Amino acid sequence: MTKANMTSFQRVLTTTGHQEPDRVPFFLLPTMHGAKELGLSIREYFSKAENVAEGQLRHDCTCGFFYAAIEVEAWGGEVIYFDDGPPNSGKPFIQKQDDIKSLEPPRVSETDCLLKVLKCLELLKAKVGDEASIIGVVTSPFSLPDEVLMAVSEAVHKWGRYPLDWVKDYGK
Question: Pairing mode, if any, of strands 79-80 and 133-135?
């Protein structure tokens, strides 16, 4: 292998190994750049796994990350879309302390927005095989507001075991 014919994956590994690749790897990770490249609105871009996969396939490092609020969406929260920026969380899904008592983690296998992310990762892997890095990201449920959870000791006890189980299921 010469530097002139490095694959995307070789370029990333070379860089992370503190060596000089043929060129600097081009990463546009959890961004909206794919929407712009495909000529889609932010909402339309993130509406299908195929759109995000296509947008990510144009870079050296592909990422199945959609938007941070997708995991809030999975828990029943609102997502607000902007024309010129990433989607964001809207109205909190925990409105009062009693909401915590009945809160259950979303089942990944039954949650459309999470299945969309997993489908995107599958599409990326099918397209790039071992020729490019694919990054998967799990950020929630650690963003659940601590002050709300601490308000009800019963809820804190219940939630002591859920976050890691949920992350392990989603991150498989």
Answer: unpaired
Q: What is the pTM of this model?
A: 0.68
Q: How many domains does the chain have?
A: 1
Which sign, positive or negative, has the C-alpha torsion 110, 111, 112, 114?
negative
- Residue 85 per-residue DSSP state: S
Query: Does residue 172 register a pLDDT over 60?
Result: yes
Q: Which of 51, 49, 48, 50 is nearest to 35 (CA)?
A: 51
Within a 10 A sphere around the Cβ of 122, how many other Cβ atoms? 14
pLDDT in tens, 140-154: 555 554 434 444 445
Around 63, how many Cα atoms within 13 Å sit in the side-chain half-sphere? 17
Which residue in the block uniquely carries the two structure tokens 């963003």? Answer: 143
Provide the CATH number for the domain around residue 133: 3.20.20.210
Domain that holds residue 164: 3-171
* % of the chain surpassing 70 pLDDT: 74
Taken in order 141, 90, 134, 116, the sign of the CA dihedral is positive
As a whole number of angstroms, the distance between CA 124 and CA 8 comes to: 13
